[in-house]
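Q: Okay, next protein. This is Crp/Fnr family transcriptional regulator from Bradyrhizobium hipponense. I've checked the sequence twice, so it should be correct. Can you predict the 3D structure?
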Amino acid sequence: MTAPGGISNGLLAALPATDLDFLRPELAMVALDQDAVLSRAGEPIEYVFFPHGGAISLMIDMADGQTVATAAVGREGAVGMLSVLGPSPSAATAVVHAAGTAARISASRFHAAFNRSPAIRNLVQDHVRAMLIQFQLGSACNALHPVEARMARWLLHLHDRIDHDILPLTQQALSEILGVRRTTVTLSMRNLRARGAIRSDQRGRIEVDRWRLAAAACECHNTMRLEVEEILSINKPDLARWRVTGVESGDAI
């Protein structure tokens, strides 16, 4: 781990320098390894992660072992921020589904900075609003839309947060994200390949044709993306540069 030297996370970049200084001495850069679990449902939140690259899915684990993803987080957001609301176990399991890096701070240190800085408190509030949009629209999508459209939506969510067109996702990972059987994933992937929206290989790599994939997805991806961007960019011109679809300018913590 090394101390972060520049800012490529949108939330950190939106903070005034004086407020960022409450966090900067405690931030350390860490690798987000593929399939790493950053926090686990039912366990205390130990760290807050501000991704600089990569994509993380928030997963709900059911008692029978089934899972489903409820939100995606990349360099526009953070994982573990809700720890500031008080000591309680994590409600979701955070899994890295595209490797990257993040600035990490202990939850206790972040809580101390949260108490000192109105700007950090406002940022947490905006982040929570953006996550609620994902949770609400995602719940409706899971209930109303077919698996193939939902798969396309999730591939787009993850693609939004990386800088290349290859997603390292196995069918098992997609099964866990979508909360469906592997056979259902196989059929949906076959249909998306037939439409030219994706190409996949036996190594668990999916190459995305973004425009064709968008045509196969339900409207939830675009609706969610635009609403989240609006929340995160209101009165925050610096944060507006870090759109969910990628860093448009600046690439430095």
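A: Here is a summary of the prediction. The first helix runs from residue 10 to 14. The first strand starts at residue 28 and ends at 32.
Q: Noted. On to the next one.
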